[in-house]
Design a protein that fits this description.
Distance between the termini: 59 Å
Strand order of the largest sheet: 3-2-1-4-5-6-7-8
Helix content: 40-55%
Number of helices: 12
Structural class: alpha/beta
Low-confidence stretches: none
Oligomer: single chain
Bound molecules: nicotinamide-adenine-dinucleotide
Strand content: 5-15%
Radius of gyration: 20 Å
Order of helices and strands: EHEHHEHEHEHEEHEHHHHH
Length: 303
């Protein structure tokens, strides 16, 4: 497939990332079909997309007419067979659980056109771990966005040994069409490029808090005060979503056998058990929409 033949994108999983990716592809002129296993998520999707776009219009980032055209390019489907029809590119955005992702690929391989390219937005699983389940390994790679998609304009493209070179070229061209900088990895690595660096940073922050070295807010203050960033590690974790963070910490607990990872996992689990999922639930390490780290005075001495 050539880039000019790539017109219809199917986004599977309409959570934090799926909704942003769907909007982003529509913004750059692609027809987007959205599907989520949870019908309620599908039902609420159009409203959530409208709210996000309304915020961009309100902030002067997007003309209202463009916003309407963008939303018109997005279709929500509730039946997998209807969602898969005439799809050129499938972007999988379901939770970071290998079996769940593999099941999605196997199911949609049966339904999508045979020439459709499949990608995963997985954070830490590598494409080799999923390639067989796609039924089309030469047309499969990881294509990993960063949150928020319209600000962090970098995607990792990570092939596995069976990915065809033409697929990598197509994905790099697609990244550029949607105004993203493609970072093509030469080999597989858990966490690509940016996430590999971010993982060490966030895991260290969680370890500092779960080990009782300092409070969450002070750990953020330390980073923000020195680096002059608008957000610290725990604000970032809230943005990612603590359920997704838990899946990732759980993965590393199993892989590394480091006892600190198990301690960190329990620390995150306590918040999840209390219903604190981060920004998406309005409460994580901070309360939203006005988290403490955005308040004047957060970085003032003698606050
Ligand atoms: N959140 C981030 O900042 C971020 C950034 C980059 C990559 N990722 C990765 O993107 C993926 C999705 O993360 P998220 O944070 O958007 O997750 P999320 O939990 O917010 O959303 C996942 C969605 O997938 C749906 N789903 C679950 N199983 C499904 C299935 N079998 N078929 C269709 N839909 C299904 C759920 O109903 C939910 O709406 C994960 O692999 C994550 O690691 C996340």
């Amino acid at each position: 497939m050539r880039i000019d033949d790539l017109r219809r994108v199917l986004v599977i999983g309409l959570g934090t990332m799926g909704q942003e990716i769907a909007l982003h592809c529509a913004r750059f002129g692609f027809d987007v079909v959205c599907y989520d296993l949870d019908a309620e998520v599908g039902e609420s999707c159009r409203g959530r997309l409208g709210t996000l776009v309304g915020q961009w219009v309100g902030a002067g980032l997007l003309p209202a007419a463009d916003a309407r055209r963008m939303l018109d390019r997005i279709r929500i489907e509730f039946e997998p067979a209807a969602a898969a029809r005439q799809v050129d590119l499938l972007i999988e955005c379901v939770p970071e659980i290998r079996r769940a992702k593999a099941e999605v690929f196997a199911r949609f391989h049966e339904l999508c056109p045979p020439e459709a390219v499949f990608v995963t937005n997985a954070s830490y699983l590598t494409p080799s771990m999923l390639a067989k389940s796609t039924g089309r390994p030469e047309l499969f790679a990881a294509f990993h966005f960063h949150d928020p998609v319209w600000v962090a304009n970098v995607v990792d493209i990570m092939p596995h040994p069976g990915t065809a070179p033409a697929t990598i070229e197509l994905l790099a061209a697609f990244a550029e069409r949607i105004d993203q900088i493609p970072i093509v990895c030469h080999k597989e690595n858990h966490g690509y490029v940016f996430n590999s660096m971010l993982r060490s940073f966030l895991m260290t922050a969680i370890a500092l808090a779960s080990d009782g070295v300092a409070d969450v807010e002070d750990i953020d203050r330390a980073w923000m005060g020195v680096m002059k960033t608008p957000i610290g590690p725990f604000g970032i974790l809230d943005r990612i979503g603590l359920d997704t963070v838990y899946d990732i910490v759980q993965y590393w607990t199993l892989v590394s056998k480091d006892p600190q990872h198990a301690k960190s996992r329990e620390f995150i689990k306590r918040l999840l058990d209390a219903g604190q999922l981060g920004l998406k639930s309005g409460h994580g390490f901070y309360r939203y929409p006005h988290p403490a780290f955005e308040q004047p005075g957060f970085l003032q001495p003698g606050r």
